[in-house]
What we know:
By secondary structure, chain A is α/β, with parallel strands linked by helices.
Amino acid sequence: MQNIYFTPGPAAIFPTLSKHIQEAFELQIPSISHRSETFRKIYQECYQGLKQLFNLPDNTAVVFASSATEIWERLIWSCVENHSLHLINGAFSKKFYETAQQLQKKPSFYEVEAGKGFDISTIQIEKNIELLALTHNETSTGVSMPVEDIHRLAEQNEQGITALDIVSSAPYAAIDFRKVDTAFFSVQKSFGLPAGLGVWIVNEKCVKKSAILEKKGLLTGTYHRLTQFWKYFEKFETPSTPNVLAIYLLNKVTQDMLKMGIENIRIQTEQKAKKLYDLLENHDYLEAFVKNKAHQSKTVVVANVKNGESTSILKKLKEKNMVVGSGYGEFKNAHLRIANFIANEEVYIDALINELKNN
Amino acid sequence: MQNIYFTPGPAAIFPTLSKHIQEAFELQIPSISHRSETFRKIYQECYQGLKQLFNLPDNTAVVFASSATEIWERLIWSCVENHSLHLINGAFSKKFYETAQQLQKKPSFYEVEAGKGFDISTIQIEKNIELLALTHNETSTGVSMPVEDIHRLAEQNEQGITALDIVSSAPYAAIDFRKVDTAFFSVQKSFGLPAGLGVWIVNEKCVKKSAILEKKGLLTGTYHRLTQFWKYFEKFETPSTPNVLAIYLLNKVTQDMLKMGIENIRIQTEQKAKKLYDLLENHDYLEAFVKNKAHQSKTVVVANVKNGESTSILKKLKEKNMVVGSGYGEFKNAHLRIANFIANEEVYIDALINELKNN
């Protein structure tokens, strides 16, 4: 019997994925050249689909790296000479900050404790900040930043680049890409694809900044520096042989999402999230780890085990072929992380809720 | 009707690939965690298979990047403070050199014209060379470096690291990894997998060098710097979410190759190559681009079109559902590039030869 995955990434595969893979093999997609017209059409269609799904302005490219982790590196390397400012409230926003440190930049940060969100009225964006690094959805703890807060901070950051990690909230997050300059996600979360592709949405402001740093003689990278990405994007090619099959599949799944309708996806995501948080409000030994409802993630719901630990719960669920994520890092044995992605359809969420009620 | 691909990458898929993909989906490989015991077992088995296939010594790791292009960058960044020496005889060995330039190192080089190999008695490896960069098989022009020459240069480079690009010659190339410190390939060539994984074979000498550079406070990378790769390799994990499905498939195809036997693979590759070069020796309007038999690649056979251009030949082959590579770069319309990988089985090579005889 197959497992039902509720893990926050790698996650449940998109319902149509197997069909698309089969078609990809019939079309011999793994053998086509990445310098062929066939590939350029796939890239172009994928870009146009994502443009529609994310409502992207015209001056915005979509380029492909191998993971969101790679994009942290490429983004900071390409666009920051010295100063980035990071809002840290979990393991992944912290890694984004540490990437800037490893690249020997001079990053600064605001930090709140795990499970807490930010009071943005306390955030000061100094004039020397070149890049403001925000994380919409902390996959580690299930804390989310309200989209209005992101937009407000972006408005206060007109001189700098506003960068947003939407790894585990795309495409649910209704981001205004007239305010946010760059965002990125990996496909093994809500897009339900095999891991191995990072999707980087990036506007002209970012590439212009990168060109300035290059002109100064600064080291901004090699084949995957932003100016190279952009140059190849303009002809719907990539600087090196990409994960062609994943781009093909991303296009197919994006078209499926457009058919579902992004508004419907958002409504369904919220309905399923409500059911999960309702369960946690009324549960004997589980509670929402994030207390402030405004900061509760709609796509990764994290439950804290009151007076106990998660191992036995995960084990019991596994016996019913339900695979839920354990906690992240220090919370490994204290939390359950439940993905509420598109592939985690309502019927499965209901089954999980039923199981957790009686567990 | 399906095409028969003879392109040098992306290339024909490995004969067993579709079966393995189907099994991967049945086993839900795209959903498993890269921090799970299931993944660690896949990585370990894949490493052990590659260790056997390449006859690797014990102090040698196999780690996964997204492409060979990424490995050029990570290798130079991690292991070179100033001086690398590059043997350039085509577009890809040149890009390896340019990667060092882009990383603001001080690379030097020997260069011969396209289609020519090196007389290694003319190569001087100065004592300050930290990394000697060799390309076993120039995918751009079909010129190959005799393995004995590689070993002899490696012996002359005891103080430095000897790095070898085996992108389009693995696993055919019978490299002595007691002499060569690091080598790398991408899986969309002779391994016949979808693009999106770079395989990096790397020994302790390299990681020790990298640790020294780090201690000096030099910037050697972030999540994919060599010391990180090594640390995670020791527990059969990866620094970030990798292309899990590709690693699963690489393991399966490696096991298939071990069943075929590496000696048989080498014999068959040479037999098929001989047939192709025999054709070119006796053809009206095609000839081998590489004249020196000792430097003729066994895995990428490049034909020059005498007094003409390749477009019409490629078109006629395409009408018979045979897809052959065009020339690379400046030779785009002058050459045919014919892959002689494992998936290009003898029956297909025979059919292609027959077609080219009567074309």
